[in-house]
Amino acid sequence: MDEQSSKKNRAMNEDEKQQQLDRYRIQNKGKPMTTKQLLKVSNDEEILKAGVRGPGLLEDFYFQEKMGHFNREEIPERVVHARGYSAYGEFECYQSMRHVTKAGFLQEAGKKTPLTIRFSTVQGPKGSYDTARDLRCQAVKFYTEEGNYDLTTIAMPVFIVQDPMKFPDVMHAYQSKQDDDIPTATGAHDRFWDYVANNPESIHMVMWIMSPRGILRSYRMMESWSINTYLFINEEGTATFVRFVWKPVLGVHSLLQDEALKIGGLDPDYHRKDLRKAINYGAYPEYELGVQLIPMEDEFKYDFDILDPAKFWPEELIPVHIIGKMTLNRNIENYFTESEQVAFNPANVVPGIGFSNDPVLQGRLFAYRDTQHHRLGSANYDELPINRPLCPFHNNTRRGYMRQRIDIDQINYHRNSLANNTPYTTPPEEGGYAHYPKKVEGYVTRRQSESFKDFFTQPRIFWNSLTPVEKQHTIEGFSYQLGKVKSRSVRQQNVDLLVNVDKELATIVAENIGVNPPEGTHVPVSTSYPSLSQANTPRYAYTQTVGVVVGDGFPSHEVKHVLDTFKKYGIFAVIISETLGTVTSADGTALKVDETFITMSPYLVDSLYVVGGRGKNERNFKYHLQQFIRVAFEHYKPIGVASTATREMEALGIHDSPGVVYATKSSNFSEEFVAAIAEQRFWNRT
């Protein structure tokens, strides 16, 4: 299924970048084994020895090549964002943005630009798990006609530091300890929360991470923001402040904390598999690109500093203009070359996009290229196929590790007569990049703007904007993470910090983690914004995963109708039973089983269709059936009950309850169940 879908995707979605990459793709299947020098190999199982029981020989060049390469197969992993995954797609511009930017890929409605994307967590190493409570990155490399443009965003609109000088410190505090390299992929430890307590600017992002936003259901349901403030620059040289946001078409949805922790053990690759599956099935993930624009003259119009990366731009004050859509339509075929070696850098811009004085952005313009030089081993990493732009590039750089270009010019310096001073520079009016001439004044200093120092107003607004359910889940997030902190002093300090955001929040957390109630109260702010709550996000049944728990003797006509309805709405159905093979209906119809009770878990499905029936081991079958029902019910998931399974629900004491749909009580069961699947959670269930 995967191979066929992959071939179909390749046929449907060829673009200029894929055609370029095809020159580097190698198919080894059906070919003779050779050395790197094309010498055919006759034995790939034994080293060359002096006699069958003798020592190995130094002349075994093939073993040296094979083992020597193996010894060097790994490269340094990313210091942050080590665990990630990639896909390909395209961006389609909805409307011309030429009034604010001269960026070529935003000039015409309908213009399409190929791209690659990498999703990632921050704290854990490559071998950690997908569902950790963490902030996540979504980095997009647009292969434009003017060169590569990299747009890096994260799943919160605010950052944890306000100055890049502090980034190494927060990461040192966030990551595992030096003595035991524990814990993995979590901030639930003393060092991180000690940092938070003593750096109050961090409480804003921490509020977002402790909320449901910190444990995403899927990369396909991830909203992400640029955080940093950039500039759009048009042909007239007029600049506009801009922030970017990707809005998933499927809406923004999250796991419960209990689910995220269990899935981390059950299926560490949960998000990766989810992304690949959707693309393979042709259910291409879609994200609309929005921009928030502020004229240069309005820089000081708001009661927050628009250059502060620890502050969001409220959509209710600064509207989001949707300008295009990204569609992910092709999976990667080689993780190392297409995801591990992809290198992003916010300094990779095109004419029409520039930089503000946002201090974190200024630091990132150095950090990204520097870390790629180290990680990929050469300044020539731009020549790797995944990083190579579509348009040819010409300059006077030469040599270095792993240089791939064969530059045949003998003149490699600027200002020359022998090559008529080529490669030549291009004036801005002809497409050359020029930095926006920002006015700069003031004394050289290491001080921070006073306008950055309101640490609690926006976290308070975020808290005010959450629903009671979201607030409860945020309390659980704080209670779990701080409950793992051994130092009572650190726990107390965080409660004393948290009271500035909300008195009730801090008091409940204090009781849960065994410290004194905080003194004081929160900042006097009552503002709230609907855009900050996931309660207002779109909801669809499309691509939701439904576990169909079924045994022998099931009603074939009823089940077939429901499965056909699932297919009609693009719902993924997983048939779960006692053993692999098939289950047989009352009239002899066979149904292929996808997963067993051993290989599948109720935590890995979004909804449950309880069909019931008979098992080979009736006691074992009933036990697992009831376990699936309990978990789905306790996690507020939709449950559809076939006519053969009503007794199972009654045995568990579940009767009429929100989101539980009975075939025996509905004249249009399949459609009603689909509507429940679209709702996704039923928080009013008791």
TrEMBL record:
Q: Which UniProt keywords apply?
A: Heme, Hydrogen peroxide, Iron, Metal-binding, Oxidoreductase, Peroxidase
A GO term, aspect molecular function:
catalase activity
Family annotation (Gene3D superfamilies):
1.20.1370.20, 3.40.50.880, Catalase core domain (2.40.180.10)
Tell me the cofactors it needs: heme
- For the keyword Heme, the answer is yes
Task: Please write the reaction equations for the catalytic activity of this protein.
Answer: 2 H2O2 = O2 + 2 H2O
Q: Where is this region: Disordered?
A: 1-29
Please tell me whether the keyword Protein biosynthesis is annotated for this protein.
no
> Which Enzyme Commission numbers does its entry carry?
1.11.1.6
Q: Which residues form the Catalase core domain?
A: 34-422
Highest taxon of the lineage = Bacteria
Record's InterPro entries?
Catalase (IPR018028), Catalase_AS (IPR024708), Catalase_clade2 (IPR024712), Catalase_clade2_helical (IPR043156), Catalase_core (IPR011614), Catalase_haem_BS (IPR002226), Catalase_immune_responsive (IPR010582), Catalase_large_C (IPR041399)
Basic and acidic residues bias: start-end ranges = 1-25
The record's function comment reads:
Decomposes hydrogen peroxide into water and oxygen; serves to protect cells from the toxic effects of hydrogen peroxide.
The cross-references to PANTHER family, in alphabetical order and at most eight, read: CATALASE, CATALASE-B
Family, according to the entry, reads as follows: Belongs to the catalase family. HPII subfamily.
Q: What is the protein's name according to its record?
A: Catalase
- Native organism is Aliibacillus thermotolerans
